[in-house]
Amino acid sequence: MSKIHIVRRHTLSLEDARTEVERIAQRVEREYGADYAWDGDTLNFARSGISGRITVTKEALDLTVRLGLLLSALKGQIEEQIVIKVDETLAARGALPPPEKAD
Predict the structure, then answer these.
(1) Phi, psi of 81 (to 5 degrees)
(2) For residue 83, is it left (φ>0), alpha (ψ between -120 and 50) or beta?
(3) What is the number of structural domains in the chain?
(4) Residue 66, Cα to own-chain centre: how many angstroms?
(5) What's the CATH number where 38 sits?
């Protein structure tokens, strides 16, 4: 099994962050047939060959995806698409924090 782990800081309220994650989950359910359920501030999802969770805090989204054997070969492509979608969603809401300054 391969694992993808992505953390994205945001500037949304906890409620708004949960709403955005819910929208993402609904789209993934429609397009890919993944089932999902909330457990507190963590959304768990699964379908054949893939499972994971998104934990929502008032500062960040913490996404972990586990890929089955067949999808492991596509890990790089899957991770790239997830990063693009999450970043696009947060950018569309104006929810990306300013970049951290380098020392």
Answers:
(1) -65, -40
(2) alpha
(3) 1
(4) 12
(5) 3.30.310.50
pLDDT digit string, tens, across residues 22-57: 998 998 899 888 999 999 999 999 999 999 999 999
Burial class (CB in 10 A: 0-12, 13-18, 19+), 90: buried
Please identify which residue in the block is written with the tokens 């499972």.
51
Tens of pLDDT, residue by residue over 2-21, are: 999 999 999 999 999 999 99
Flag whether 73 is in a domain: yes
Per-residue pLDDT at 102: 58
In a domain, 43, yes or no: yes
Cα–Cα distances (Å) from 16 to 32, 87, 97, in that order, read: 24, 15, 15
Name beta bridge partners: 56.
61
Question: pTM, whole model, 2 decimals?
Answer: 0.84
99 in a domain, yes or no? no
Residue-number span of the structural domain to which 24 is assigned: 2-91
When pLDDT is cut at 50, 70 and 90, the band that residue 94 belongs to is: confident
